[in-house]
Design goal:
51% strand, Alpha-D-Glucose-1,6-Bisphosphate, Chain A, domain 4, eight-stranded antiparallel beta sheet, alpha+beta, 8 strands, globular
Length: 151
Amino acid sequence: MPAFELNIFIARPREEVYDQLAEPINMIGLQPYMTTIDILKEQKDANGVIVRPFNMVETYRWAGLPILRSRVYTSIHATKPHEQLLYRSYRRPGIKIVYEYEFRYEGEQTHVIQRVEFEQVSKLIETLVFNSTNKAQRALLTNLKVRLENG
């Protein structure tokens, strides 16, 4: 399956950067296509890892008009607090994507490494999904940097 990695440096402490991505409510303004969010009850998995699930609707536009609305179920797994997060995203038609975030504090800034792996995606739409996900994740990390450094 295809995968890609993105890196960004944010001039804020690692805990602050981590905390922004660890809470579903903070996706408002970060996710470029998100138009609604429904935060579900926090849970713990079998290994005691905190899981924060949420549903969202992504709206894709062309010439300013909505052409597609996609419901997405996502769960945030706090695998290693302040060091690593794992997002699992499920959307139609049978698309499963894993986003792994690693946080390293280097000097006065946090190095965020995001690895994106497509666990399941139809070959017919693989390139489209890959390109739109790559674009959306670049926007998410840029929005995060702007929020934390200018806010």
